[in-house]
Amino acid sequence: TTPAEVCIVSDTKSTYYTKHNAGDGAHLSLIGELARRFNETAVPFRHVLLADLLQKGLVPPQKFYIITNLLMLTGLERKQLMERFEEEKATVLWMYAPGVFFPENGPSAANIQNLLGIGMKMEVRNMAPAIALKDGWGVKSAVNPNISGPWFFPQDGFGEVIGTMSDGVPALVSWEKNGARHYFSTLMYRSEE
How buried is 186 (Cβ within 10 angstroms: 0-12 exposed, 13-18 middle, 19+ buried)? Predict the structure, then answer.
């Protein structure tokens, strides 16, 4: 049996911070599309809730984490997540708007910046962003599967731009911090165009 080294992380409390069943809500893309298509990767994986991931010893160390709807994070949860990823020297893909809310405020780009440590900008408009990926990433472009908003774009503090909007604005970036490799995607889900 091949061990599961990929971990999809979701959160139940974050569901109360976004709209649902409107065809444009974040959860449709962050979880629905991932659940519908992830089996096509043919890799063993586990799906855990944030509360379980943060409970010491419950979830074994993983090589790769996909962070879905962790929209609302407390200060302690932010600290615990980063400590875990750095200790494991994990690779982490942060989707859409991780930590965009604290329990007492949000949404704001500053809240995401507080979590990830990279500069962010929020655009309040509905759209389905499409990004062009640089060579070597398997596909040339990706598009968000639904029209939604607001959107969050990395501004500075990252190491590499992997994908951009048509106007050159970074939308998929990577950086390393304390032994962990991080990726941030503006998209809720990366669907090939």
Answer: buried
Q: Which residues, in sequence order, are CB contacts of 22 under 8 Å at separation 6+? A: none
Question: Which secondary structure element, helix H or strand E, spans residue 66, and what is its range?
Answer: strand 64-67
Q: Going by C-beta distance under 8 Å and a sequence separation of 6 or more, which residues neighbour residue 108?
A: 100, 122
pLDDT tens sequence across 40-57: 777 888 899 999 999 999
Compute, in degrees rounded to 10, the torsion defined by CA atoms 187, 43, 62, 15. 40
Cα 96 from Cα 172, distance rounded (Å) = 10
Higher per-residue confidence, 58 vs 69 = 58
Q: Is 4 helix (H, G, I), strand (E, B) or coil?
A: coil
CB 177 within 8 A of CB 89: no
The DSSP bridge partners found for residue 65 are: 7, 92
Residues in the chain: 193
Q: 3: cis peptide before it, omega within 30°?
A: no
Confidence (pTM): 0.91
Q: Which of 18-22, 32-36, 49-53 has the highest average model confidence (pLDDT)?
A: 49-53
Measured distance CA(189)–CA(180) in Å, rounded: 22
